[in-house]
Amino acid sequence: MGFLSLVGNSFGCSASGERLVSAARDGDLQEAKALLEYNPRLARYSTFGVRNSPLHYSAAQGHHEIVSLLIESGVDINLRNYRGQTALMQACQYGHWEVVQTLILFKANIHRADYLNGGTAIHLAALNGHSRCIRLLFADYIPSIPNFCSILRKRSRIDESVSEFDEGALYEVINRPADGGVTALHMAALNGHAETVHLLLDLGASVTDITVEDGTTIDLIGAGSTPLHYAACGGSAQCCQLLIAKGASLTAENANGWTPLMVARSWHRDWLKDILSRPPGSQPKLSPSPYLCLPLMSIVEIARQCGWRSIDSHSTCLDPCVVCLERKCTVAAEGCFHEFCTQCALYLCSTNSTSTPAHGPPGSIPCPLCRHGIVSFVKLASTMPIIKELPRTSLSLPFCTCSAEVQESISLETPFCKPDLHCSRLSPLGSSFRSLSCKRFPSVKFSPGLCMGAPDTSPCLVQRTSDRGLRTEFVQCSRSSSLRRSTSQNEGRRWLCSFNQSMGTGSSC
């Protein structure tokens, strides 16, 4: 009887965790709040086999409010699933910049690489062309100084601001290779994401880095290929022109002895012949990327120090934020000194992608009031730092042992509780016991295929509606639970050959 009680109570805890997973996937904020108030340790729950936590599901679906709730409940922000992917990787894969912004503000690690391909969040964002996510990923590396672009291009004669900028760290992060030596620029060029290629080049991505033969990755283009080889294979004329303008070599040969022109011919990209056959007469002038944002670092630092998610409405405030008209002003733009709340300033820096040049240096964003170029934000004198509170729990989900013979002296009754069933929870530290009287949640049917798909597949996290429109299904996909990197041809083709739908041979990869 004791064994059956233990098994039954384990299923009850699993049901609570699965219920939180369902709320995180569906964006049910009230349900998630209620479950975490009942047991904050449920934030550490992970699904069987694929090891996806509620944080993974909410990040993949773009529910940034639930992401914040889970992090504040004590979940590890860098928690991995069975493929080694973090919530930040999932948000970058699907382009949910609001989730990326939230994770960056909570200092998520952007250097984690997955177990399958060695790719980071930057690789996944470049693979799918999410330039806003890439901009947020480099918020701690691009200083809010007016001569950033000049320093990066070795044209600045002013040394006073160089100490604020670690160019070596930025170069190392942006050119970090995945398996096979594939960089983020390789992936963006292959898939024809010209805006992403432009941003990466402005941030210092190297046009001379080549791929290598590592024995595990299927490289259909050939080892020793530059980003221009990959752009020629993808067939994007704009990407080729951007790379050539940054100094990419037209005569570089890979391990197969192919030049970019030969790669284009082998993949039947005949429209690239004129671009790749002869160098331009004069070096074209490349305008700065519209996704470059200088004031992002300054506002991120202020948000981390003083908070950014104030929901109090200051209806009696004499000088509210001119953007939202709800919150009080906490920061001011250097130069024009117009004042905004921190949340609106973050929104301006995260969403700005206008090609209209502001009255300021490259990378500045136009002020919504006077169009003056904003390079950095400063906090107002009345803006006070917040007192950082510890998470409600940092412990993992405890084991439950159910005993009908032991009567507890103290019972905590909640809307989820029933006083006739007692559950004693063993502390992971083994020093004390905590009693809770609870009842099991109603049984809920879940899809057995709740796992994360590869970047080029539609994972079970994305809902699909049937033809009749009567029910919603979830895509099921089977994945091996092994943590070793796959050496199969299919995985290599998915990683290196995720072409756009416009490519003629895309369906074969």
Descriptive report:
β9 and β10 (472-474) form a beta hairpin. The chain is mostly helical and 509 residues long. Strands 2-1-5 form a three-stranded antiparallel beta sheet. The protein has a three-stranded antiparallel beta sheet with strand order 6-7-8. The chain has helices at residues 2-26, 29-38, 54-61, 64-72, 87-94, 97-105, 121-127, 131-137, 148-152, 167-174, 184-190, 194-202, 227-234, 237-245, 260-266, 273-277, 296-306, 342-351, 489-496, and strands spanning 331-333, 339-340, 365-366, 373-374, 377-379, 400-402, 422-426, 433-437, 463-465, 472-474. The model is unreliable at 1-12, 156-161, 390-460 and 462-509 (pLDDT under 50).
Could you name the key traits of this structure?
three-stranded antiparallel sheet, disordered C terminus, 19 helices, disordered N terminus, mainly alpha, zinc-finger, zinc ion binding
Q: Provide the CATH topology of the domain at 2-277.
A: Serine Threonine Protein Phosphatase 5, Tetratricopeptide repeat
CATH top level label of the domain at 2-277: Mainly Alpha
- The average pLDDT is 75
Helical segment count: 19
How would you characterize the largest beta sheet?
3 strands, antiparallel
- DSSP helix fraction: 25-40%
Low-pLDDT residue intervals, each spanning 5 or more residues: 1-12, 156-161, 390-460, 462-509
Quickly give the structural class.
mainly alpha
For the record, the CATH architecture of the domain at 2-277 stands as Alpha Horseshoe
* Terminal residue distance: 55 Å
Lateral arrangement of strands in the main beta sheet:
2-1-5
**How many individual β-strands?**
10
Could you tell me the radius of gyration in angstroms?
Answer: 26 Å
Series of H and E elements: HHHHHHHHHHHHHHHHHEEHEEEEEEEEH
The name of the CATH superfamily of the domain at 2-277 reads Ankyrin repeat-containing domain
Shape: flat
The percent range for strand residues is 5-15%
